[in-house]
Design brief:
Two copies of one chain form a homodimer.
Chain A: E1 2-6, H1 11-23, E2 27-31, H2 42-47, E3 55-59, E4 62-65, H3 67-75, H4 85-115, H5 123-144, H6 157-166, H7 180-190
Parallel strand pairs in A: 1-2
Antiparallel strand pairs in A: 1-3, 3-4
Chain lengths: 203, 203
């Protein structure tokens, strides 16, 4: 049985929970407290030298990290990941967009606000993150105004990747008022059977 | 025939050139000048709304962006990308590591230094980037001290992704003196047949 080391309130970890729920993959969830530096212990670093959650434990001494790599591994052979060709590459295109152009703004602003309580010495950084976050939201809005999901005509792991931090972006100070297509897409994903709320009780 | 919109001096673009060279994929290279805002014209934005190079043109109105997504697309079915399972997911693990924990430090420090000439108002940011860059290099060194390549026993696109900015990291102020395994890995990749130098003349 898989073990997932993570925190349900982290969007990167929530991605894994949501896919596992939708695919009915049994697993054990081990809560890791990043505020208590639990990703920097020797035992954690032996699983992921990059000191980040989530980590997927596959078996004795086999670990996979990076949320989007874990999603690709788990979704192989399911409707959440096209088998090959351009559609499969487009899933990755949106996942790399998420990690480079979305997460560093929206997730980091949320972290500064929600986890750290928006301290004065991070206020300038927090406000600077708003610009990049809205750029990413505008790119998403443009795409979602033309199609119900990011790749193909049904949900894929690219939707899961972008949903994770977007659906809680208000916690980072982002209003989705000017993004009607994003709002509709969020509702569409939340309405799917077996949707799980981002809450530590569901970990 | 493929068209690539890019700049050979950008590591993200160089990745595509190197793989195409190693696989013998014919293509036309279209130089894009980011300093002249050529990624922000209407015609460029219609290819990639996220306004970044590289972009791969596959045919009439079909475009793929994000360097690592393009690599996965081109490498499908070749020795540079394991067919499935954990090895394939590990390739992605290292590529997401590159985009989140490596590029934003090493490539951005290089950009501030090489493209902008290290202006005074970016000096603090440049120096802050050194810390994150060395963290990434330490994670790479640990892995490469145990194996010749990042995934499996031969070069994959994960090596190409990490090589692109690492082999010119001195241009961002990073010395590789304390990373003997990274140095050996760079020499190993450069010695492969059909290696191409990162130069605009080779675009």
């Amino acid at each position: 049985m898989y073990r997932v080391y993570g925190d349900m309130l982290s969007g990167n970890c929530f991605k894994i929970k949501l896919l596992m729920q939708w695919l009915g993959i049994e697993h054990e969830w081990i809560h890791v407290d990043i505020m208590a530096s639990e990703t920097h212990t020797d035992s954690f670093l032996s699983m992921n030298a990059n000191a980040k959650i989530p980590v997927l434990e596959l078996g004795t001494s086999q670990y996979l990290w990076e949320s989007n790599a874990i999603l690709n591994f788990l979704a192989e052979g399911t409707p959440y990941l096209p088998e090959s060709g351009l559609l499969r590459a487009q899933v990755l295109q949106w996942q790399f967009f998420e990690q480079y152009s979305h997460e560093p703004y929206i997730a980091v602003a949320r972290y500064i606000n929600k986890y750290l309580g928006l301290p004065a010495d991070r206020a300038a950084e927090y406000h600077a993150k708003q610009v990049g976050g809205h750029k990413a939201l505008a790119v998403m809005e443009r795409e979602l105004s033309r199609s119900a999901f990011f790749v193909g005509s049904s949900p894929t792991i690219s939707d899961i990747s972008l949903f994770a931090y977007t659906h809680v972006s208000h916690e980072g100070g982002f209003s989705l008022e000017s993004y009607p297509s994003i709002q509709a897409w969020i509702s569409r994903l939340k309405a799917l059977p077996n949707y799980v709320e981002m809450s530590r009780e569901n970990g």
